[in-house]
User: Which sequence fits this backbone?
């Protein structure tokens, strides 16, 4: 198991500390031993020197005392007695010195110990010889002096000389021992000093190694880490990395910091990607579009080629988003993005720059014709229905095209002109494209002006309601009037619904206008009942924004209460795009309306969805077939109308056909079996429907007779 930095440093420090302690202990022990040895040697030297000194001095004194005693014994007995006492005392000292040497003999060198042994043998012999000389004097007095001197010369003095020689040798040995001890002590002291020096040097070297390792293991990585932190802080460059190392604490710290940088770098990349990418569709957003468009324009300028900016806006997306919910809207946007992406080249840029707005930058074109080809192909990508909750929704788009260098030279103006062309395409009927023209600016300004003027038009009394009649095809009886909003501006004159109704839907004013039209129509219908010979209904169109408001049913109920109109005389017309995507909510709202007695009609039937499965699931009273089917003269078109009529009758619903303008169309509808008709053949929208209410039977008989006499090929239309 690999040690961590702390353990390594602790182990190293412990080794150094232990080594220093051992060295200090060893040195202390050596010094103590030296001191002890020095003390012992000193004591031994002193003892030996003292003992030998005593022996030499005592031996000399004995010889002197003994000579004096022999010479004075006969002449001065008193002094001789004192000398004898001194002799006895001297021998007592010699005995002590001999005993001392005997005691330290084991500490002496073998040769010196042998000399001490010889002294132990020689001293008693010397004493006996001296006692023999003293005994001669004591026994014979002065007469014995010659014999005593002979004993002194032959026995005592040789013995004394021998003792002195041994004492001198022992003294010399003691001095030599002391000198050797001093030399050993000096050598030991030097060795101790060397040991201390080596210990110190080793401690310094080991400490330096530890410092080096600490710098390598701790300080260097931390300094590197601090340096990287400082660089990252100053440069915001999260691609920098600290130098990696092992699995210890510093290594884990460095690895953690590097991992943090990786996460920050990934997060920064993610944020940078999000900053230039649309989150929903993963397409470039407006910011990235501006950058790529600038580069594309620079390339087009270098290559002297044409660049096209296509600005695409989905038709009716706001209604879908408001009625079906944002989740469905998001799904549609993703589907549209996927379809457009399949057509766009890798060198082109497809971007989403707004809610339902997309742009395509197409480079390396030879002219506007190639840009129009791309536009048609992109619109064709949206032709296929989109499967949505069991239904198929048809989605269209309006597109504007601006060209470099023909229309603009900078990105901002290029986008602005493409946006202008897109609004012109939308105003022209949607589901088409327009190439920018300088005159388009006037059209856009007109649209913006209408948008501003429409606000407050109801309060200013500029809106009116026109009524177009609908007749029973079998009895020619007037069944109802369809209420249609009209805008009569004091300076601009009559503004057609095709211009201001889309603006009202985009701005949300449609709810206010729709409720106002409904109340005006209901009030007018109440007056009709007092004039007409039979009940006459009024039909009012309802937009998606109105229908799905929480207070819609309550608002209709309140209008009926205020106007006093019988609910059975009110028919609400809804297009398929209003209720089909949300059948559950639609069915609930329709059921509440029908419980009030209000009838429900499907307006523009056959143009919104390719499925008919919703018909049995909704409480509907009438199908109003779109006028576009009458404009098709093929047998397939007639068969399709006949099938729709048959289906409606099977479901117990009446059928109204819109747009009847010729007697031939009238005869065809009678043959097919339609129940009711509406069109210019019987009457245009009018603000005063009284002409249809008075003398209704006679008027309609005359009208039908005149229409039947009109040649088929003339295409004549009878206007009321």
Assistant:
């Amino acid at each position: 198991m690999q040690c961590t930095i702390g353990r390594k440093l602790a182990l190293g420090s412990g080794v150094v500390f232990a080594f220093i302690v051992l060295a200090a202990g060893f040195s202390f022990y050596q010094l103590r031993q030296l001191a002890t040895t020095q003390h012992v040697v000193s004591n031994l030297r002193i003892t030996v020197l003292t003992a030998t000194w005593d022996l030499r001095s005592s031996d000399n004194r004995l010889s002197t005392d003994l000579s004096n005693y022999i010479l004075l014994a006969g002449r001065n007995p008193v002094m001789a007695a004192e000398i004898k006492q001194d002799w006895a005392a001297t021998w007592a000292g010699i005995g002590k010195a001999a005993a001392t040497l005997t005691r330290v003999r084991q500490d002496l060198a073998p040769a010196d110990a042998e000399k001490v042994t010889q002294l132990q043998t020689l001293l008693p012999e010397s004493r006996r010889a001296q006692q023999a000389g003293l005994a001669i004097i004591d026994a014979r007095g002065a007469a014995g002096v010659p014999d005593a001197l002979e004993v002194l010369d032959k026995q005592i003095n040789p013995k004394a000389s021998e003792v002195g020689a041994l004492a001198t040798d022992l003294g010399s040995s003691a001095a030599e021992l002391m000198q050797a001890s001093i030399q050993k002590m000096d050598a030991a002291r030097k060795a101790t000093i060397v040991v201390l020096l080596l210990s110190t040097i080793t401690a310094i070297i080991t400490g330096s190694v530890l410092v080096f390792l600490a710098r390598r293991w701790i300080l260097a990585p931390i300094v590197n880490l601090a340096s990287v932190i400082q660089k990252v802080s100053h440069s915001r460059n999260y691609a920098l990395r600290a130098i990696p190392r092992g699995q210890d604490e510093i290594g884990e710290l460095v690895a953690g910091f590097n991992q943090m940088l990786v996460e920050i770098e990934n997060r920064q990349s993610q944020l940078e990607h999000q900053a230039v990418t649309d989150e929903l569709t993963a397409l470039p957003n407006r910011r990235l579009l501006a950058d790529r468009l600038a580069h594309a324009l620079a390339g087009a300028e270098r290559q002297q080629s044409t660049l096209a900016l296509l600005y695409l806006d989905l038709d009716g997306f706001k209604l879908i988003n408001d009625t079906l919910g944002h989740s469905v809207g998001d799904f549609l946007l993703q589907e549209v993005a996927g379809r457009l992406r399949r057509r766009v080249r890798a060198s082109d840029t497809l971007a989403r720059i707004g809610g339902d707005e997309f742009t395509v930058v197409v480079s390396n074109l030879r002219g506007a014709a190639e840009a129009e080809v791309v536009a048609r192909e992109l619109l064709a990508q949206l032709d296929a229905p989109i499967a949505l909750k069991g239904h198929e929704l048809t989605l269209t788009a309006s597109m504007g095209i601006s060209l470099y260098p023909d229309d603009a030279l900078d990105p901002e103006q290029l986008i602005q002109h493409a946006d202008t062309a897109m609004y012109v395409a939308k105003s022209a009927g949607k589901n088409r494209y327009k190439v920018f023209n300088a005159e388009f600016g006037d059209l856009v300004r007109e649209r913006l002006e209408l948008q501003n003027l429409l606000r407050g038009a109801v309060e200013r009394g500029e809106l009116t309601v026109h009524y177009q009649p609908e007749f029973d095809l079998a009895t020619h009886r007037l069944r109802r009037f369809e209420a249609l909003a009209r805008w009569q501006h004091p300076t601009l004159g009559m503004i057609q619904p095709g211009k201001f109704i889309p603006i009202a839907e985009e701005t949300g004013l449609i709810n206010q206008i729709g409720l106002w039209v409904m109340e005006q129509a209901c009030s007018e219908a109440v007056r009709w009942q007092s004039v007409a010979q039979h009940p006459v209904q009024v039909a009012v169109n309802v937009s998606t924004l109105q229908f799905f408001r929480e207070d819609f049913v309550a608002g209709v109920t309140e209008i009926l209460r205020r106007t006093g109109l019988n609910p059975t005389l009110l028919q609400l017309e809804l297009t398929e795009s209003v209720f089909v995507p949300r059948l559950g909510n639609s069915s609930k709202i329709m059921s509440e309306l029908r419980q009030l007695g209000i009838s429900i009609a499907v307006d523009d039937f056959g143009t919104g969805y390719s499925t008919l499965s919703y018909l049995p699931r909704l409480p509907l009273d009438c199908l109003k077939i779109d006028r576009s089917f009458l404009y098709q003269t093929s047998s397939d078109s007639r068969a399709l109308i006949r099938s729709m009529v048959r289906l409606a009758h099977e479901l117990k619903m009446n059928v109204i056909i819109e747009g009847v303008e010729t007697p031939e169309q009238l005869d065809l509808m009678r043959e097919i079996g339609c129940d009711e008709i509406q069109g210019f053949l019987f009457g245009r929208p009018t603000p005063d429907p009284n002409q249809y209410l008075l003398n209704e039977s006679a008027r309609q008989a005359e009208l039908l007779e005149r229409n039947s006499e009109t040649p088929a090929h003339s295409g004549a239309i009878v206007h009321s």
